[in-house]
Each structure stands twice: as C-alpha cells, then as structure tokens.
Specification:
The complex is a heterodimer.
Chain A lengths: L1 E5 L10 H11 L4 E6 L15 E4 L7 H14 L4 E3 L3 H7 L3 H6 L9 H6 L5 H7 L7 E4 L2 H8 L6 E4 L5 E4 L2 H15 L3 E5 L5 E9 L4 E12 L5 E6 L3 H14 L2 E10 L6 E7 L7 H4 L5 H11 L14 E3 L9 H9 L2 E2 L5
Parallel strand pairs in A: 1-2, 1-4, 2-3
Antiparallel strand pairs in A: 3-15, 5-8, 6-7, 6-8, 9-10, 9-12, 10-11, 11-14, 12-13
Chain B lengths: L2 H4 L1 E3 L4 E4 L5 E3 L2 H11 L5 H12 L3 H17 L4
Antiparallel strand pairs in B: 1-2, 2-3
Helix pairs in contact in B: 3-4
The chains are: A alpha+beta, B alpha+beta.
C-alpha cells in the first residue's frame, strides 16, 4: 500500500497528518507513506516512523493546475495510489478535483462537493436547521465595516472566526474591528461573528459511509482547552444525546469520509449546540488508535475499495489524552533538500 | 436510580467519572459509600440513614446531616 498524507505539523497548532501516519503504521507496518507538506519545518516529517518520502506542495491558493502538476511530480518520484488530505484550506480545492484525481488512479475518501459546502462555517446555521440541531446565532461578514454593523445587533462578547482557522473572543467594538481585519487578511472572507455559549466543550470524530451512516465514532469531552480554543486534553465519553446529534448531521449530509464535529453544551439549558463541522480527522486522531479504535487504519481500505468498512465498536468511556510536546531532530541536509529541491526520498526508518 | 448515577465510574479513592458528560469529581469517603449503596439499589433515605449509622457508628443527627448534604449535592448534579 502506498499512501500520501498532508498536514504533518505537530507543533503549537497541530495538524492531523502525523497522527494518521502513526495509525497507518500501527496497522500496516509495510505501508509506503508519502508526506506532502507546505513547509519544510512541519515537525511530523522528522519523527521516527514518519513518512518514507516527503515533497513540498504549492499552497492551494495557487490553483488546481499547479497543485495537480506537483502531485504528478511527486508520484513520478515516489508512486502512491491513495491520498488522504487533512487540511481545511486544501480540502476546499481537493473536493473539486475528485474527477482529476480519479483519472490519475489516485483514490480518496471525500464527501460530495454539496455536502462539503453545506458544513462550511457561513452555512452552518442552515445545515443545523435542516438536521434539527441547535447552533449559536452566527453572522457571516465580508468586510470590517460589515462586521461592525452586524455586531451592533449582537451582544458582546462575541467569537470572531476565520473562514478556515482561528477563533478569537472579542469584548469591544475596537477589538472586533482589529480581529476581523486580521482574520480577513489572513484567511479571506467571510469572517464569522458568533454568539458565545458557555458550557463544556465536546468533540466527535468519525467516518461517514457516504449513505447517511457512520462507520465509527469517538466522542470526547475537552478537558483542557487553550486560549485559542484548541483541546489540549480530552476524555472519551458515551453520551447518547451527542451521538444522536452526530448521526443526524451525517445522515442529513450523507457524509463520506473523515469528520470532526465540535459542540458546546449550554450550561444553562443542557442543550448541545453545534459549533463547527470539519471535513477531516482532528489532530487527536491517533488517541483512540492507542486503545484499539484506529480510524486512520479503517479509512485506508475504504479509500482503496470504495466500500465502507464494517462498523467500528464504540470506544469505551474513561480513556483520556493529554497533548504532549517533544522535540524531534533532523539534519540540516534534510532541511536543505526539502527547502531546495522540495523533495526528500530517503527517510531512514 | 438515575441514569447519571448509574453512569458514574468509581475507584476506591473516591474519584468519580461521569461517562456521559465527561465530568469528574472527587468524593469524600462517605459520599463514595453512599454512591455505591445507591448504585446497588438502596435508594430509600431511611435505608441510607440506617446504613450510615451502622457503618460509621455515628448518631442519627450526624448521619442525617451528612446524608442531607450529600443528597442536596446529588440533586444539583442530577444524580438523584
């Protein structure tokens, strides 16, 4: 099996790719893994058990032609036939390239374009309505001026979210203006203004079978949340209400492939409120793999054959994880190879 | 017994984990014993009161005070 994976960074803002590599290595020790990176400093490139070959990719914003050309170059040097993209910004491009990828003999496990677009942040309220799920009041704005005028009809503090990443709480109009300007310039439009719901945060990861069902689901409560709202620790739970929310959402979308669903439970009403749905696994994807529920390993045959794997058992509640940072080491020659030619083919395992 | 009480995972040192909502608690030895009795099906206040007096060799006033305090917190947490 030869599989390409993106999102290798496991630093301050970790991406899922390195965890997916770990899950695949655990289940398929002989797999040949190609890392596709946007930065030679993505730490997961250099870990023991990391990718066998690495290629730098152009940012998705350069367009489909350049992205596909680079993919072809990588395949010529290190062939692969499965591709697991893991980053929100690139998925926006790649879901529209499924025909081109298929023609090249590259198999993926991705949602339809329609399903992908329906879960985008600025359309989340409509999706939540259709699935009969609560979601915080949210407004999409396309300029700083519009952010200011929309915020006038909402109560501060508010969450201000970038189109793809980043969420910051603002408690004044001045703060809102600066934050919206920064997010618009970094991630483009729209920026989302979202009312704040107070309560514990939950996260669910799974794989949709493309026909409305779920082949595996792992729900956690975020036990440690950093200032950016990222979970630094979590514990598995078995909450029938949260499971039902996930099932309704996936059924409504007929979602195919990996997903992450972020939810807050309103501490006054006890109601779960949908905050985001991401079209990929979360960075903690290898946490359940360590107690036997290996989502990355389940995704591989699904992508390879197009047939959804049998339902995975529900994870037992009471497992917890803590995010743990370590230093990985490399040689400057490796960095020079990736920074110069954009490829590194002889990863020592 | 409430579903929430049934979902609590306990250890002998009084650590309790709610498997539904992921909340965790540190119980006093008396609260741990009361949760265990309730999980085993002893739900009547009079029964719990008698068991507290017998097990801890305390008078009714002391047992009643501890039981009322526990039940009040348990109700707030949705355990009873």
């Amino acid at each position: 099996m030869r599989v390409a994976i993106t999102g290798m960074s496991r630093g301050e803002n970790p991406q899922p790719g390195a965890g997916i590599v770990a899950g695949i290595r655990a289940a398929y020790p002989q797999a040949f893994i190609v890392g596709l990176s946007y930065d030679a400093l993505e730490s997961g490139i250099y870990v023991t058990g990391g990718p066998d070959a690495v290629f730098t990719m152009p940012y998705p914003t350069v367009g489909a032609e350049a992205f596909l050309r680079r993919l072809d170059e990588a395949r010529a040097a290190a062939p692969f036939d499965l591709f697991i993209p893991t980053l929100d910004a690139e998925l926006d491009l790649i879901v529209n390239l499924q025909t081109e990828l298929h023609e090249r003999g590259i198999r993926t496990c991705l949602p339809s374009k329609v399903a992908f677009q329906r879960r985008m942040k600025h359309r989340l309220a409509d999706l939540a309505d259709a699935a009969n799920i609560a979601t915080p009041k949210t407004r999409a704005v396309y300029s700083v001026a519009e952010a200011q005028s929309e915020a006038a009809g909402m109560s501060l503090p508010l969450m201000v979210k970038g189109a793809y990443y980043d969420a910051q709480q603002v408690d004044s109009i001045d703060n809102l203006r600066d934050t919206a300007a920064s997010l618009l310039s970094q991630w483009g439009a729209p920026v989302l203004l979202q009312e704040i719901i107070t309560g514990p945060e939950f996260d669910a990861m799974g794989i949709g079978d493309g026909e409305g069902g779920i082949t595996g689901l792992c729900c956690i409560r975020k036990t440690i949340v950093n200032k950016a709202g990222k979970g630094q620790g979590g514990a598995t739970i078995n909450d029938p209400a949260l499971t039902e929310l996930c099932r309704r959402l996936i059924r409504e979308l007929k979602w195919k492939g990996p997903f992450e669903i972020e939810v807050i439970k309103d501490e006054t009403t006890g109601q779960h409120s949908l905050i985001e749905m991401n079209p990929r696994f979360p960075a903690w994807v290898d946490f359940p793999a360590q107690f036997g529920t290996n989502f990355a390993a389940a995704l591989v045959p699904f992508a390879a054959t197009g047939t959804a794997p049998p339902p995975m058992p529900d994870p037992e509640p009471g497992w917890f994880f803590l995010r743990h940072q370590v230093e990985v080491l490399g040689r400057m020659e490796q960095l020079a190879a990736l920074s110069g030619s954009g490829e590194w083919l002889d990863h020592p395992h | 017994m409430s579903a929430k009480l049934d979902d609590l995972l306990l250890n002998d040192r009084g650590f309790a984990f709610d498997a539904v909502d992921g909340e965790s608690y540190q119980l006093s030895p008396t609260a741990l014993q009361l949760v265990r009795w309730m999980q085993a099906g002893d739900l009547e206040e009079a029964v719990l009161l008698d068991r507290l007096m017998d097990s801890y060799e305390v008078d009714e006033h002391t047992a009643r005070r501890d039981l009322d305090s526990f039940l009040s917190t348990a109700r707030e947490l949705g355990w009873s």
